[in-house]
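Plasmid related protein
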Amino acid sequence: MFILYPQAALFPLGQLFATPGVLVEVTEVEISLALARHAMADWGDLDQEDIDENNRALKEGSRLLSAYHSSSRVKFWIITEWDRSVTTVLLPSEY
């Protein structure tokens, strides 16, 4: 998988994983672009409460969650663990 990793990343993504479902439903380019957005603290399609929680988590070292939609309207999540060792791309149904 080709990954764009921006120089402006605010945190490390660690090891990257993608679930089988998201690999079938979302293109690699869309996943890569979403990972770049996630690493720059663009949390995607979250409500303000979840955005505020992510911004706190970024400072305090908690888990980070972003939500995005593919061009075919498939919702997918990106979760980076609290220690920034692992980032997983998945469909909500695979959580």
